[in-house]
Amino acid sequence: MIAFVNADLDIRKKPIFRNLNFTIQPGELVYIVGRSGSGKTTLLKSLYMEIKPVKGEVIVNGFSSRKIRKGKIAVLRRKLGIVFQDFRLLEDRNVYDNLAFVLKVTGTKHSLIKEKVMTALKEVGLEQAAKEMPQNLSGGEQQRVVIARALVGDPVAIIADEPTGNLDPETSIEILEYLKKINAKGISVIIGTHDYDLVRHHPSRTLMIKDMNLVECTIEPAPSGTCWHPVPKQAAVAS
């Protein structure tokens, strides 16, 4: 379970969120929506404790931002899969070795590495690309590798920060469908995005950033010829 309890988040002493109180249950798919610069990345970074609240706490998989020791942050991150907008693949290693590197760093038995890597690549339809170099793949294929890398360590949650921000609309839907498939296995998926039309394609629980807080919202179609737009359901997020 993920919980924010009376949490204030700042960046370089600038207030970003105030008094966040909400929970994400195991196995949920949740969108965090808001315009660029609204604080989505800050919120997601707090889940893997790169940023900690200046007040209150964040609890992730039993670890509290108030109590966690520096050495335990690495333990927490091993149970979280992170998907970045800009891929962050190792360009001097092929696809297989990008995934295997994660397992080696976390101390996975050598005898298990090949099976885990190929299983993760199969989940995103890229087992045939295991020996390819990342720069030889399309943007959509590289993002699928990133999803496989996030999945390879058997995470309890996938955290995706603008995972389709550099992709065309058709490829974006494809990436979202892979994330939905992963979520169907019982893995929590938290997606930060400014693309309301993407959310409309696969509706799920949606939290919108507004006035340094979050509100539950639905994404409903606007009249023909205009954009999709979020409709808040209530003034604050219920836990």
Structural summary, described in words:
With about 240 residues, the chain is of the alpha/beta class. It has a single domain, classed as Rossmann fold (3-Layer(aba) Sandwich), CATH 3.40.50.300. A hairpin with a 2-residue loop joins strand 9 and strand 10. A 7-stranded mixed sheet has the order 6-7-8-3-9-10-11, with helices on both faces. Strands 2-1-4-5 form a 4-stranded antiparallel sheet, covered by helices on one side. It is built from 7 helices and 11 strands. Helix 3 packs across helix 4. It has helices at about 40-45, 70-80, 95-105, 110-125, 140-150, 170-185, 195-200; strands at about 1-10, 15-25, 30-35, 55-60, 65, 80-85, 155-160, 190-195, 205-210, 215-220, 230. The model is unreliable at about 220-230 (pLDDT under 50).
**Helix and strand element order:** EEEHEEHEHHHEHEHEEE
Strand content: 25-35%
Give average pLDDT, whole number.
90
Low-confidence stretches: 221-228
CATH architecture: 3-Layer(aba) Sandwich
Distance between the termini: 12 Å
| Integer-rounded radius of gyration | 18 Å
Report the CATH topology name: Rossmann fold
Which CATH class is shown? Alpha Beta
Based on Cα principal axes, name the global outline: globular
Q: Kindly report the name of the CATH homologous superfamily.
A: P-loop containing nucleotide triphosphate hydrolases
Annotation field: number of helices:
7
Number of strands: 11
Query: Looking across the biggest beta sheet, what order are the strands in?
Result: 6-7-8-3-9-10-11
Which structural class do the helices and strands define?
Answer: alpha/beta
- What's the main sheet like? 7 strands, mixed
